[in-house]
Amino acid sequence: MSLGLGVAQLVAPNAVRRISGVDDSPTSRAVVPLVGARELVHAAGLLTSRRKGAWAWTRVMGDAMDLTALGVAISHRAGQRRRRLLGVTGAIVGITAVDLLTAVQATRSTATSGRGGPMELTATTTVRIPAPEVYTFWRDLQNLPTFMAHLEEVRTTGDRTSHWTAGAPFGQNVEWDAEIVDEAAGERIAWRSTGDADVPNAGTVRFVPAPDGVSTEVHVVLTYDIPGGPVGKAVAKYFGEEPHQQLDDDLRRLKQVLETGEVVRSDGAPWGKRARKEFPQRPAQPLSDDELAKGADA
Amino acid sequence: MRANTWAGRNKVEVRDVPDPKLLNRRDAIVRITSTAICGSDLHLVDGYVPTMQDGDVMGHEFMGEVVEVGSDVPGDRLRVGDRVVVPFPIACGACGACAAELYSCCENTNPNAGIAEKMFGHPVAGIFGYSHLTGGFAGGQAQYARVPFADVGPLKIESDLTDEQVLFLSDILPTGYMGAEMCDIQPSDVVAVWGAGPVGQFAMDSARVLGAAEVIAIDKEPYRLEMAERAGHTPVNFDEVDVRSRLLELTGGRGPDKCIDAVGLEATHGSAHIAAFDRVKQAVRSESDRPHALRQAILSCRSGGVVSVIGVYGGLVDKFPAGAWMNRALTLRTGQCHVQRYMEPLLRRIEAGEIDPTRIITHTLPLDEAERGFELFKNKQDNCEKVVLKP
Ligand SMILES: [Zn+2]
Ligand SMILES: [Zn+2]
């Protein structure tokens, strides 16, 4: 919604000033487009940032600025203009309340997931492939890094045992051994880390036939026991911002790989699962040979 | 290669950019012979659609010759040398949406699905040259384009029809047609179409082809209304008459049986106080679109009629006439066009001479003059209806 106001203030500053009753002041001519630009920054921040708490608070501060400016304007106006200003002020008081609530909630959820201790993530997707095939793909654990962003490599070391390596976001590469603790062919796989893993973790994936008779619902539950210390901090930081988004994106890529054969790439996001974030992207124009050769890390 | 790029709000610029390369195994590279400027390109240029970046290659209506194919494109589907029209939604052909022929809702082709999901609840398909919200795919206002899922989307043209006859199969002709098809037209139907831009014109032609008794064109630009009139439709100029009264007069007081909104979020008409109200709503952040045409269509439609929406909306609207919709048993249908579903049947209608897509072309320019093309189209200068660019 920031977008709507921001666009209006930038595209039609005069109309906005007239409607809100401040069209008689030269200051408002400069201030209204600036406020519009600020709204666009907020909208972009909220849409693209994984740190919504901070962005939500900047909105609350912006609202406070609006209210102050309107208060000053009201005390200098009378009649029709004053009535229009009062109407707009009423609306902004309401919006401020909503923004405040959002900011408080966003901050609260960041705080709880940022601490150490166990963290559980769930996500689900529907893949248009029969359950036994999805199961077979997942049961070959070496396939997991093709769609899970933070996994570098999974090497199977026995029928039920494997060695996992996770990449840079965990700080230094983090490695651990894992074992499958429970499975039902075509239906379910459960695993957990073994030994003294830096980040003890466990997961379950269930493959449930969808009502259409063709597709499979994939339900994933992951738990991480986040320790203290620098590794714990790095893990908490990585997962603390938008953990569910990470897992949702992983499952989206699983669906792409199973349904279309590979991770879908665009010119703006050409690196498949190696892209750490959706934004900022490179422009949507073809890559030069150089950029293509250097890859995502360049 | 040369390509028309977004260069900031209200600014496009033809620049040198790298040639496209295959990124996925089902990609093809197409050398573009004809491309067009679409009404929705204006929303991108205006900054109404968020997530554009400096350097984004624009354009989602294009056709040309295949010059390279990826290793997983079956030879019986597409080969180097084939002449193809490329549909604007990128569809994988394998997901649940594609299986239901809802190609513009493809679940796999938007690499930025996470962001689209926040805007729309569920993500939508990737689209060429149409912001990073729809995937960040380079567009077709260029000499070459990379076409993902080349084995699913592109339509081969094997007859000797001209580019001008088949180019609009990529977007505006199927879009207009879908608008009419969603109306479930009966032989006695009077169909009113809001907006006589390119999509509106094709919605009118399609309503006629599907058997409507009469088609009414609503716009304010005399040249657009004349264009519709020449094609046999009844013009209504909303700058000169009250639309609802005129529609009642034309339909014996019933209202049009079927209404098509081919305008979308940038409508500028509607009564003065509603327009002012919308601006205030935008100003206090509770509305991002201006649904004049949609409101008027719902209020004008006869009871039990269908309102079909093919005009582009991006965000939230307020003062939606839910009372009229519910109490008068209206059906509301909409969607970004599922182009892949309509290309072949419409190609046959073009071959049979039932539809003449060339009638709306007013300007043909070299690609290097894209900027002027946008100016002409945006400001409706020189009676501009549709601009075709030649790379
Ligand atoms: Zn278009
Ligand atoms: Zn699909």
UniProtKB/TrEMBL annotation, chain B:
Domain (Alcohol dehydrogenase-like N-terminal) ranges: 26-155
PROSITE patterns xrefs: ADH_ZINC
Cofactor: Zn(2+)
InterPro entries per UniProt: ADH-like_C (IPR013149), ADH-like_N (IPR013154), ADH_Zn_CS (IPR002328), GroES-like_sf (IPR011032), NAD(P)-bd_dom_sf (IPR036291)
Keywords of the record: Metal-binding, Oxidoreductase, Zinc
Domain of life: Bacteria
Domain Alcohol dehydrogenase-like C-terminal as annotated: residue spans: 198-268
Entry protein name: Glutathione-dependent formaldehyde dehydrogenase
Organism in which the protein naturally occurs: Cryptosporangium phraense
Organism classification: Bacteria, Bacillati, Actinomycetota, Actinomycetes, Cryptosporangiales
